[in-house]
Amino acid sequence: MRILVIEDDDKIRRYVEQALRAERCAVDVAADGDEGLWLAGSHPYDVIVMDLMLPTRDGMSVLRQLRRSGSTVPVLILTARGGVEDRVSGLNAGADDYLAKPFAVSELIARVHALGRRQRPHLGSVLKFEDLELDLLGRRVSRGGQRIDLTPREFALLELLLQHAPNPVSKAVIIEKVWDRCFDSETALVNVHVSHLRKKLELPGSPPLIRTIRGVGFALGAEPA
């Protein structure tokens, strides 16, 4: 998943960012409301985690603007303002969930994953292709029953390929969905990560799973006959 965290407290922002990255999420961060609103309108996110008390533009204003613009991305409000009226106001403004500070990181992660699954109701918790399995809840990958350890970026990349299999995914879409920023200069890094992922997915006696489609991108599955 790709997550946007809008939080002005440096310590909390780094804490949340690190926790989400440990869960193999791609994470963008913003320290104020204007930056957060710009990022939310410029890139595709699966979930937004946002404080309410933000400089330049408060979280409620960001939330209302997102909903007015037609954005349906799930928003988890993370704030010290945990009173009933605050929660009701946030939910009425278009928030999908509300978590008061201080919070347990395990609960934050569980709520983020729940919101992400809500965005993808057609997908189960386990994605499969041939003998490859990716467990979204357990954050595990296996091929032929053999567990494969992936970095957060590799996990997100494989998840994207599985979601579209056997259709190809372009480098531009990979950068948008997997990378923290959307720069054309990062296409070389996509090649590097695909190469590393290919090697990790290789098993003796098994055909390669990821193929390159020249001028298009990458796809799961064998070359067509």
Average of per-residue pLDDT values: 84
Radius of gyration: 19 Å
Q: Which CATH class of the largest domain?
A: Alpha Beta
Q: What's the number of helices? A: 8
> How many discrete domains?
2
Summarize the structure in words.
The protein has 225 residues and is of the alpha/beta class. The chain folds into 2 domains: 118 residues, Rossmann fold, CATH 3.40.50; 95 residues, Arc Repressor Mutant, subunit A, CATH 1.10.10. The protein has 8 helices and 12 strands. The strands form 3 sheets. Strands 2-1-3-4-5 form a 5-stranded parallel β-sheet, with helices on both faces. A 4-stranded antiparallel β-sheet has the order 6-7-8-9, covered by helices on one side. Strands 10-12-11 form a 3-stranded antiparallel β-sheet. It starts with a strand and ends in a 5-residue tail after the last strand. InterPro entries: CheY-like_superfamily, OmpR/PhoB-type_DNA-bd, Sig_transdc_resp-reg_receiver, WalR-like, WH-like_DNA-bd_sf. It comes from Dokdonella soli. Keywords: DNA-binding, Phosphoprotein, Transcription, Transcription regulation, Two-component regulatory system.
Question: Which features does this protein show?
Answer:
four-stranded antiparallel sheet, Rossmann fold, 2 domains, Arc Repressor Mutant, subunit A, alpha/beta, 21% strand, 225 residues
